[in-house]
Amino acid sequence: MIKIGNRKIGKEIKPFIIAEMSGNHNQSLDRALEIVEDAASSGAHALKLQTYTPDTMTLDISEGDFFITDQKSLWKGRSLYELYQEAHTPWEWHKPIFDRARELGLIVFSTPFDDTAVDFLEELDVPCYKVASFENTDLPLIRKIASAGKPMIISTGMATVAELDETVRTARESGCNDIILLKCTSTYPASPDTTNILTIPHMRDLFGCEVGLSDHTMGLGVSVASVALGATVIEKHFTLNRADGGVDSAFSLEPPEMKALVEETERAWQALGHIQYDPTEPEKKSMIFRRSLYITKDLRAGEILTNENVRSIRPGHGLPPKYLDVILGKKVTRDMKRGMPVSWDYIG
Which part of the chain is CATH 3.90.1210.10? Predict the structure, then answer.
């Protein structure tokens, strides 16, 4: 089990739900603070930012490798620099956002994208760090983050087993003992049929750490299903209203959906329980509604039980139905009234 802030994370605790603001503030601090408030109202346990500037992410070039041409991309026709300029959260906003989140009881942290971001976030006393999928092979950055000695949540999008092994070993060797790996498909939005959440329990066993899901699919189904496979952390992008637009709005949850995510993942977690075949305690009251053998016609002592005068019906106070063939042809030892349960006590 891992502890982040005042929250324990593990199979014994309901899933830890992270609302990812990303660039959905649409360059408005007021909107960012409203996202914080709605995240708290929805029941999310944590709020996550991203800490970078366009210049720490890429070069200000609008052609070639630095220009998005993929026709299926949400961001086609834009340069990387332009995209990150719109999506980044100004560093001077971090403190007011952090302060508001903490006032509302949210655990708040961020994804740093270079060393300067780590140093900046350390000044804000973040309780943990998130590593994005695109940075999970940046071993110098992994070392820098791990050296802070705080829990690391690492998205695993695109990474091979060998790459993840290198990342996890590097983090542990650099001072991080608490690691959470999030299964992730780095497409936006992601399709359920490429999400492969069966990887989650395998990843837990392989790396010996907590596991979860960074979910870019639409809706809640994939996240809820992942809890059944052992996910203890769920991260979803979050916005006030998809219709307002924004760089990540298309695959972000709105407040009522985030509330439903919190509730449904908790229900999925509660339903896991343990291996159980016998009646549960609440079920014992329902045992009387099983079928059993009852007399269906008035009988006098000495009459023979037949399919005409005994049947398997509800409720369950008589002999179990499996004894029907055993009792047929036997005599009753006393007068019987229609509606009496069959018992060995009066079968001769």
Answer: 281-346
Integer Cα distance of 193 and 35 in angstroms: 30
- pLDDT tens, 146-169? 999 999 999 999 999 999 999 999
The C-alpha atoms of residue 251 and residue 145 are separated, in whole angstroms, by 28
Give the whole-angstrom CA distance, residue 192 versus residue 198: 12
DSSP annotation of 158 reads T
Tokens 């695993």, residue located: 156
Is the separation of the CB atoms in 57 and 84 below 8 Å? yes
> Can you give 51-85 as a three-state secondary structure string?
ECCHHHHCCCCCCHHHECCCCCCCCCCCEHHHHHH
Q: Look up the CATH number of domain 281-346.
A: 3.90.1210.10
pTM: 0.89
Work out the number of other CB atoms within 10 angstroms of the CB of residue 290: 14
Q: Cβ distance 155 to 133 under 8 Å?
A: yes
Closest CA to 49 of 120, 117, 127, 108: 108
Domain 12-52+88-272 has CATH 3.20.20.70: yes
- Strand, coil or helix: what is 329? coil
Packing angle of the helix pair 139-146, 161-173 (nearest 10 deg) = 40
Complete DSSP assignment for 103-154: HTT-EEEEEE-SHHHHHHHHHTT-S-EEE-GGGTT-HHHHHHHHTT-S-EEE
- Residues of CATH 3.20.20.70 domain(s) within the chain? 12-52+88-272
Query: Looking at this protein, which amino acid is placed at residue 115?
Result: D
Closest CA to 200 of 234, 169, 226: 226
Which pLDDT tens digit goes with each residue over 297-325?
999 999 999 999 999 999 999 999 999 99
What average pLDDT score do residues 250-279 get? 96
Helix (H, G, I), strand (E, B), or coil: what is residue 225?
Answer: helix
Supply the angle between the helices 29-42 and 255-272 in degrees, to the nearest 10: 30
Residues 97 and 24 sit within 8 Å (Cβ to Cβ):
no
